[in-house]
Write a structure and sequence with these properties.
The complex is a heterodimer of chains A (289) and B (358). Chain A contains 14 helices and no strands. Chain A is mainly alpha-helical. The longest helix of chain A is centred in the first third of the chain and has 34 residues, at 20-53. Chain A has helices at 2-6, 20-53, 57-60, 74-80, 85-116, 122-131, 137-151, 157-181, 185-193, 198-227, 230-235, 242-249, 255-275, 277-283. Chain A has two domains: 24-74, no CATH class; 84-248, MetI-like (MetI-like fold). Chain B is of the alpha+beta class and 358 residues long. Chain B has two domains: 15-243, 3-Layer(aba) Sandwich (Rossmann fold), CATH 3.40.50.300; 251-357, Nucleic acid-binding proteins (OB fold (Dihydrolipoamide Acetyltransferase, E2P), Beta Barrel), CATH 2.40.50. Chain B contains nine helices and 20 strands. In chain B, the strands form four sheets. Chain B has a six-stranded mixed beta sheet with strand order 6-7-8-3-9-10, with helices on both faces. A six-stranded antiparallel beta sheet of chain B has the order 13-12-11-14-19-20. A four-stranded antiparallel beta sheet of chain B has the order 2-1-4-5, covered by helices on one side. In chain B, helix 4 (118-131) crosses helix 5 (147-160). The chains are: A mainly alpha (289), B alpha+beta (358). Chains A and B meet through helix 9 and helix 10 of A and strand 6 and helix 3 of B.
Chain lengths: 289, 358
């Protein structure tokens, strides 16, 4: 459009180049710059994490850095042989899987009820769900630890999974609530008139339609548990998850091992978030599909 | 293939609605509805948006529970039964075609739920699909269909069940005008052939007139009149019905008593009811008037040529009145004319009760 207004040979036919153009353009540059800045904010540290993980120990502490990793797998190999790390990895997977299953098992029915039924205190219930995130975990950690020791849940993967489920549940409820709300009630009603009970209508019509979203919500719960470090560090001793284990053991470790440990933590989370990105968008109301 | 879709004729499916009322919180959506629908009858529920048509239909389907009253289908009280046990099938306003299933599986959904053998499902799906002219779409998903095609799938899915009663909630309202006309004619044929009792909800009076065996005109949660289309049109039981049906609607003029069976309308003396004393409303349809030497004095305000007719709006004694006249007439605004009502088409209403007066 600037092209047309700048075209000199026909100034008479277009005597009035649109004055909004420069304003609109500068707005666009600002927008692009912001986007680039935000992306860099996230991507640059990740990139250096990758570079340092794939660098030899000497290279990690030198400066200036090379932007191309030298593909030294030494640090990663060290971790593969590190004592207790496989056990921690196993614990992380167990806890995250239990969190995933439990948060869907409890979250999806709550989401369904919120989207389909009118009941007293519905709004309060919704607020309460969010309020569970209002108490910082450090505040709860001590009473929880005491309670867990009394009930024998301390230092168990199940006990930790319970705590993680509490963290993941609000998201599971809100995601599934928006998923169920996106399915017209008429589809269920049509199924009822065609011979379904409430239950079979759910399994034959609703479930197939929301399964991808449920999967995403489950993976999200998995990531929350995978990344959680505070409760894991407080509530477990022998059965540490990967995050807690790395926090404990890498405190005094050499720099290149810290990078490699960070890398091991970040990559699964990144992959998961990438897999569920479109559901996160829909949860935040940015896009519907 | 003809008659193949006919349901078992021993299976009478008359519907009785007895004193049904429905309240949503403090709001009363339906007031004591009584309605009987005969086996194989095509009943249209007609009324403006928000008058309770959908609510009544959903109560019959079992998707909504009545606050009080009884619903009987085929001599069986059904109000405590789930939708699936009532012998009904329903066509929803927005079609409700299952997006995760092909057209074939959509039409066969109810049959599969009834555990019908595969070859029977296939036979019935193909038959109803060909009836609705969608045989070539059986492998598609709903996302790959136009609105009209989805509509056909929804009807086919209901018909494939061979229900005793088919319930339709404004099934054509989401289609464009031309398609609506086409589907209307088709639905009428298909349903007549299937010999299914049908209840059809619409706010479109033309649709109602063209489809119905009987029309129930609803207003503010009540059934004002239930009668054949021509009866509802010619002999509206209440002023609301007279004003709701017909386009343009019926004209009303104030009438003062001028003697035994004589009424003064706009200065003219007209024969009318004998019993009544108080002023009445004189009512006449726009197409039931002609220009004559004797008649209601009128001043033309607006002339709208509609091709086949001339729609003339005129001032009669301070009241606006519309007449549909011959298109050959050369009339213009300001002309003084006399409009003669066709005597046997004149109706009378009591302004107090708004009911018709004989
Ligand atoms: N679930 C409901 N809760 C509250 N009010 C409702 C509900 N369903 C319908 N209504 C009200 O009942 C009235 C009749 O609605 P409806 O039967 O859908 O009308 P129609 O189909 O004739 O347009 C409307 O005023 C509507 O707002
Ligand atoms: Mg409606």
């Amino acid at each position: 459009m600037t092209h047309a207004s700048m075209a000199a040979p026909a100034p008479k036919t277009e005597p009035n180049p649109t004055p909004v153009t420069p304003v609109r353009n500068s707005g666009r540059y600002l927008y692009a710059a912001t986007v680039i800045l935000l992306c860099a904010w996230v991507l640059v540290p990740l990139y250096f994490l990758l570079v340092n993980t794939l660098s030899s120990p000497e290279q990690v502490s030198t400066f200036p850095k090379s932007f191309i990793p030298e593909f030294d797998l030494g640090s990663l190999q060290f971790f593969a042989g590190f004592q207790g790390i496989l056990n921690a990895l196993k614990n992380s997977i167990i806890v995250a899987s239990m969190t995933m299953v439990m948060s869907i098992l409890f979250g999806a029915p709550a989401g369904y009820a919120l989207s389909r039924f009118e009941f007293r205190g519905k709004e309060t219930f919704r607020v309460l769900i969010l309020l569970t995130r209002a108490f910082p975990l450090p505040l709860l950690a001590l009473p929880l630890a005491v309670l867990f020791i009394r009930t024998g849940l301390d230092d168990t993967t199940f006990g930790l999974a319970l705590v993680h489920t509490t963290l993941a549940l609000p998201f599971a409820v809100l995601i599934t609530f928006s998923l169920f709300s996106g399915i017209p009630v008429e589809l269920e009603e049509a199924a009822w008139t065609l011979g379904c009970t409430r239950f079979t209508a759910f399994t034959k019509v609703v479930l197939p339609l929301i399964l991808p979203g449920i999967t995403a919500s489950a993976i999200f719960a998995f990531v929350i548990s995978w990344n959680e470090v505070f409760a894991a560090a407080v509530l477990t001793i022998e059965n540490r998850t990967l995050t807690a284990f790395l926090l404990q053991t890498l405190g005094e470790a050499p720099l290149h091992l810290k990078f490699a440990g960070g890398f091991i933590l970040v990559v699964p989370a990144l992959i998961f978030i990438f897999a569920v990105r479109k559901y996160l968008f829909s949860m935040w109301g940015i896009a519907n599909r | 293939m003809r008659g193949d879709l006919q349901k078992d004729t021993n299976d009478m499916a008359e519907i009785q609605i007895k004193n049904v009322a429905k309240t949503f919180g403090a709001y009363q959506a339906l007031h004591s509805i009584d309605l009987a629908i005969a086996d194989q009858e095509f009943m249209v529920l007609l009324g403006a948006s928000g008058c309770g048509k959908t609510t009544l239909l959903r109560i019959i389907a079992g998707l909504e529970t009545a606050s009080i009253g009884e619903v009987w289908i085929g001599g069986r009280r059904v109000d405590h039964l789930a939708p699936k046990d009532r012998g009904i099938a329903m066509v929803f306003q927005n079609y409700a075609v299952f997006p995760h299933l092909t057209v074939f599986e959509n039409i066969g959904f109810g049959l599969r739920m009834a555990k019908m053998p595969n070859d029977e499902v296939k036979r019935r799906v193909e038959r109803t699909a060909s009836l609705m002219h969608i045989e070539q779409l059986l492998k598609r998903y709903s996302g790959e269909l136009s609105g009209g095609q989805r509509q056909r799938v929804a009807v086919a899915r209901a018909l494939a069940m061979e229900p005793d009663v088919i319930l339709m909630d404004e099934p054509l309202s989401n289609l464009d005008a031309l398609l609506r006309l086409e589907m209307r004619a088709e639905l009428k044929g298909v349903l007549a052939e299937s010999k299914t009792t049908a209840i059809y909800v619409t706010h479109d009076q033309v649709e109602a007139m063209s489809l119905a065996d009987r029309i129930s005109v609803m207003h503010q949660g009540r059934i004002i009149q239930a009668a054949s289309p021509i009866e509802v049109y010619r002999n509206p039981a209440a002023q609301f019905v007279a004003g709701f049906l017909g386009n343009p609607p019926m004209n009303f003029l104030r009438a003062e008593k001028a003697g035994d069976g004589k009424w003064n309308v706009a200065g003219e003396t007209v024969d009318g009811p004998r019993g009544a004393e108080a002023p009445l409303q004189f009512a006449i349809r726009p197409e039931d008037m002609q220009i004559a030497d004797q008649g209601l004095p009128a001043q033309v305000r607006l002339v709208e040529p509609l091709g086949a007719h001339l729609l003339v709006t005129c001032d009669v004694d301070g009241t606006m009145l519309r007449a549909v006249l011959d298109s050959d007439l050369s009339l213009k605004a300001g002309d003084h004319i006399k409009l003669a009502p066709q005597p046997d088409r004149v109706r009378w209403f009591d302004p107090e009760t708004t009911k018709a007066v004989a």
